[in-house]
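Interim report, section 4.2 (structural modelling).
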Amino acid sequence: MQVFVIGNISVDETYLINDLPQKGSSIHGAKTHQDLGGKGANQAIILSRCGINTTLIAAIGNDNQGHWCKEKIEQERLTLRPNSPRDCRTDTSLILNCADGDNANITTTTAADALSINDIEQELLFSKPGDVVLQQGNFSHQKTEAIFSLARQKGLITVFNPSPVKNTFAELLPLIDILVVNQLEAQLLGNTADCILAAHALLNAGVGQVVVTLGAEGSMLLNGTGLTHVAAEPVSVKDTTGAGDTFLAVMLASSLLRQSSLAAIDLQRAALASSITIGRTGTLSAFPTQFELAQMLK
Amino acid sequence: MQVFVIGNISVDETYLINDLPQKGSSIHGAKTHQDLGGKGANQAIILSRCGINTTLIAAIGNDNQGHWCKEKIEQERLTLRPNSPRDCRTDTSLILNCADGDNANITTTTAADALSINDIEQELLFSKPGDVVLQQGNFSHQKTEAIFSLARQKGLITVFNPSPVKNTFAELLPLIDILVVNQLEAQLLGNTADCILAAHALLNAGVGQVVVTLGAEGSMLLNGTGLTHVAAEPVSVKDTTGAGDTFLAVMLASSLLRQSSLAAIDLQRAALASSITIGRTGTLSAFPTQFELAQMLK
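Predicted structure of the assembly:
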């Protein structure tokens, strides 16, 4: 069994500035971090660190940042496909971190957009029924839909983390076996402010199992057998970047390693893992190590 | 004779965005360019392309962007010192290019700040009286002053392009043989809104020769023999980044190659060269080639 994560890779560059610049102005800042990021890369790396056979289908550009991403990914137990960079710039996420603690982000999707359905179809030739296809919200609605439709035709399990969320993603719910959303995504796609009602709406729309992450309030799982709530782990928050990706990947890995459908234990392990990510600064550099994950998944 | 350019190297990264982000927001953008920049690197590269024996004393960091800068500089006929990167991140200039044509810039100075007076002193051991020391405004007042004082002690010719300008730079004027300023810098350091009066004030403050660049209005040279005005070259403006650096470097190179003090012909050649930079997009990639400069300097 293997997991195909189809998504994006980006270089997360964090700048500390006093305040956001005005038009026409030049301000000084300090580049405090550069880290591998992108929700696709994040989730694939953590799955692989959990011991899951993982292929990341994602595009890097043919620039020095692309080389750097490839080197970083090659340090993980992960297969990156396609093997060659696309003829464009590698995607970047600028995190403009203001002195008052507020952030603004600028994200590019050039490389993610350059990955074609045809590229992805080629890579999925290596899939077998029962394998998993995991997508995030970085692709267009059309591409996201085409990939899940293809996955269903091939008898693959579909997992969707619709972040960043688009309104139209609600149309894709019948194609999804496992949906993982935060509160805002649940409310938007479930079309109600009440998260429990929203989770039921998502289930009724055709999703197999719904997981809603609730930040400090923990998380909940809704499926045919009912609703399960799991508390969050107490943690001193350093940086929440990548926490949702850690939660999703560890929850999914736990269930796959147990060879059983999602249950409270998977959400509990996920909560513990994401508390590690939250307690450290950065993206990749904040994630739990293979050793830490092995302890949790025993 | 050689020129020691003591300044900064940065990676210029240009992002095209609809509008500047608000706090708490995540927006999409496209990374449209990555180019070698930094006023120190720009001026040194153009001097070397003019056939001047040029040493750039500037710091890169020990990250992948530093490697990339080094590779770019190694393609020029230029000596980069110190030979080893500093233990920090390479400086970056983020150019946030809004859809309405307005820009905002975020610039880091970590690597430039990491270059110590001691580092610079070591490199200037190789200088001989009559060599040139050229600085821009990227260092602290104290470091800028210490370098020019050292240069004077060693009998070197001092050239100052005080950009970005600081008020206190006015105190350094007695240490300067050639001062190259734009209108705003002339007005600030000369303490009057009239550029001609400002140029006279700068000369009276102890500068040997004053050059004021006036954009589309051309440029002027003021020294002991009087005031010379030179017109700008007509050009369709694509991107003014690096235009001032091109002007300064070609003017200086022209005078050094003629083995004579600054004159109208040097400003005319500089105007022609900077019109090439203005007519092309980017920083390094917009600069005149060695071949183009050789034609101009014949």
